[in-house]
Amino acid sequence: MTGVDVVFGETSATDRTVEIPLSHLSVELGHLYMEDLADGSVDLSAYFGRIASWTGPDQLADLARVARSRLRASTCVLVDDYAAAPLGPDVVVPRLIAAARSAGLTIDYIARESGCAAPLGGAGPLAGLQPAASLADLVESLIVADPAAGFNGSRPPAHENGWLCNGVRSPAGGARQAMRAPAAWQPPVENRAHRHSIFLDVEIWREQGPGRLWSCPFLATVWQLLRLGQLRVLGQPAVTPVGIDPDDLPATWAQFPTIARLPGRAAPFAAYRTLSVLDGRFLPVEHAVRMTLGQVAVDPIVAEQTLRRAGRENVPLPAELPDRVGHVFLGG
Amino acid sequence: MGVEDGGGAEPGDAPPAGAAGGGSRVLVGEVRTGLLAHSRALTEPEATAVVALRPGFQVRVSARPVPHTVSPDLTLGVHCPVPSASGARRDGLGTVLSRASVTGGRLVQASTHARIILGGPRSVGRRRPWAHHLAHPGGIEVGGRLSADDLADGFLLAETGDGPGTTLDLGAVCGRLLDQVQESPILDQKPPFRARRTRFRFVLLPCGPPSAGEPVCHSGSADTDTTSDRSPAPGHVCRVGFVVAGETVRTLRIHGSGLDLVSVVGLCEDLALHDWLLTTVQHVVAGSRVRAGGGGRLPSQLKPVIDHLLHVWMPAARIGEELLPVWTGLEQRPGFSRQWESLVAWIRDQLALSLLAGLGDGAR
Predict the structure, then answer these.
(1) Regarding beta strands A236-237 and A232-233, do their DSSP bridges make them parallel or antiparallel, or are they unpaired?
(2) Using a CB-CB distance cutoff of 8 angstroms, which residues of chain B are in contact with residue A18?
């Protein structure tokens, strides 16, 4: 050795993963089915009024675990246009903005659910690399299923055709043979149940026509991951909010950005933590979302970047994704 | 085998001082190396496509000193007993990480590893939620007492990795990944010659005093054993034991402290790659020596070796400073490069002889 330290590096030899701006808290101001928006008898102002009483600045600062004076929080609404969209953005968006405003709320971002399942544009096949087909496909590829006891890697993990559960299913009783008594029923078991099982089995997708129909709870999981700023495609942000002009809105959702930023001084869309204030009827969906989030392994580089930044900002942040997600469920 | 019986509950098995949280950590892994099932060397974009195993994730590419592309890490959840030489059944829960790589457009490797964290709560009910394990990828938390040596012996001495056993099976995960890469539609399934896959198992243990029976031969077929002693310090390798266990299985036991685990996995991949080169070329040379002497003609088996393998030998090219002692130690005994140079010299001699014979034919 000559005593000279030589450091050799190749830029292409390391991943480049872009960081995105983060708020402390992303607040989802309710969720409405398209029918509710189309139904003229639903009092949207009253609906947002009930949400407003849970989203005061003190409450949000408390949830974000930061002082009110330095709280960065953004608000958002997800429009449920994936299954059917009888009304376009030109009708829905002004209605939402007006109803929220009448309750003293400002909507910063409006996203469309169909964007989570739409083909990802941008980077084409580059040097053999495949961008994911859609955000939903990307998130599905991030699922690392909670293994049942006895799974040692000797076989490939069972692929359950579009379903994800939190334990071991009840054995199928179909294979009954002549001269043999049917096997006694056995209950499903939740992995690491607390004394008793609460077994949950969630449909992620089902085949429909040439492609997949993604389930509402799964798209809601994609939505939470976007709000938590955890999705990247080839190191780039999976979706970037696009500014829109509320006076010049398209008639169809396909022409609307996946995440639209309304005019104003909005804090960044993505955040360390999320809060969703929802009708109680969405509790099963959000139970499924939490279970699915608990089985999603995001890019470790992104996970680490987020934790490091939270540390620098003195924001306490759990490493586990389901623990960053908060809910308020409203009664009828 | 009968290496020191790891009862797991002996006072002497307590984790060494400095191990965090009262439990020691043991890195276990396996690397499988083979020849790509393709008639010619892959170009960089082809190699990138072959290891682009996850949509939306980047592939790491480096061009020097030999083209090298590495897949993103793949995560798999496991919940099963971890290996133990004493037969203690200690349940582990967590994830293993795997990755595949292509080197020189010719060689393919799959590697799987996990950090096994000993000394967790025994009862499953007190275990942490799955999301905790996903937030710490590549870690397996083991409940109940188990000594690091018992675990390491159990892992390194296991007869097969692909058996129907119930303990953690990194070999099967690794083998499936190698198959998956080899079955890529980009590959024409026509390798220029046949070469066997090798399996390279490794463990990284804390420093600490050498245990009674170590590093003596671990099996009857062991023909190589290397140790090098260093004083323990941060980012240091203390001892290394390398065993050639049969024709295609190698084991490496590293005792070290403060080492970066990702670098250790990289070191083991590099060692496995060079061991495969040595094993494969040795095999071809042995075969051609038997048939050599046919009028000075170059034995036909040597041509693909010259075309495809000789230039891939670049030991320790991607190894960090703190791990170089491992390579250096292995260069002393068994002397990887010395063996390689001798093989290459023989092949060059054959080439020179065949050229001379060719000139002689031309003069006649």
Answers:
(1) antiparallel
(2) none
- Residue B231 touches partner A, C-beta closer than 8 Å: no
How far apart are alpha carbons B138 and B124 in whole angstroms?
19
B249-274 pLDDT tens trace: 999 999 999 999 999 999 999 999 99
Identify the residue with better confidence: A256 or A331. Answer: A256
Regarding whether B185 and B39 lie in a shared domain, the answer is: yes
Paired with B111 in beta bridges are B31, B99
| Same domain membership, residue B77 and residue B177 | yes
On whether any CB of chain A is under 8 Å from the CB of B89, the answer is no
Which helix (H) or strand (E) element contains residue B60? strand B60-62
The total domain count for chain B is 2
Q: Is-contact A214 A118, C-beta < 8 A?
A: no
Q: Could you read off the pLDDT of B135-164 as tens digits, one per residue?
A: 999 999 998 889 999 999 999 987 654 456
Flag whether residue A168 sits within 8 Å of chain B, measured between CB atoms: no
Are B131 and A294 inside 8 Å of each other by CB?
yes
Query: Chain B contact for A323, CB < 8 A?
Result: yes
- Nearest CB among B61, B132, B172 relative to A153 is that of B172
Task: Among B261, B294, B315, give the residue marking a domain's end.
Answer: B261
In a domain, B67, yes or no: yes
Q: Which of residues 2-41 of A touch B (CB under 8 A)?
A: 8, 10, 12-17
Q: Does a structural domain hold residue B72?
A: yes
- Claim to verify: residue B130 and residue B176 sit in the same structural domain: yes
Question: Which of B229, B261, B293 delimits the end of a domain?
Answer: B261
Tens digit of pLDDT for each residue in B324-335?
889 888 888 888
Same-domain check for residues B75 and B209: yes
- Do residues B178 and B255 both lie within one domain? yes
Is B298 a domain residue? Answer: yes
* C-alpha span between A25 and A60 (Å, rounded): 7
Structure tokens at B31: 């690397």
Judge: A153–B64 Cβ closer than 8 Å, yes or no: no
Assign B180 a pLDDT band (cuts: 50, 70, 90): very high
Q: What are the pLDDT digits (tens) for A258-269?
A: 999 999 999 999
Residues B208 and B297 in one domain: no
Domain shared by B157 and B246, yes or no: yes
Whether residues B33 and B108 share a domain: the answer is: yes
| Interchain pair A297, B95: CB under 8 A | yes
B77 and A147 within 8 Å at the Cβ level: the answer is yes
The pLDDT of A115-127, averaged and rounded, is 68
Q: How far apart are CA B297 and CA B304, in angstroms?
A: 15
Q: How far is CA B7 from CA B25, B87, B89, B146, B315, in A?
A: 18, 9, 11, 8, 39
CB A99 within 8 A of CB A45: yes
Is A312 in a helix, a strand, or coil? Answer: helix
Looking at the complex, report in whole angstroms how far the Cα of residue A62 sits from the nearest Cα belonging to chain B.
24
Range of the domain at B86: 20-261
Question: Residue B317: its chain A contacts at CB < 8 A?
Answer: none
ipTM of the complex: 0.90
Q: Cβ of B234 under 8 Å from any chain A Cβ?
A: no
B240 falls within a domain: yes
A 37-96 residues inside an 8 A Cβ radius of B: none
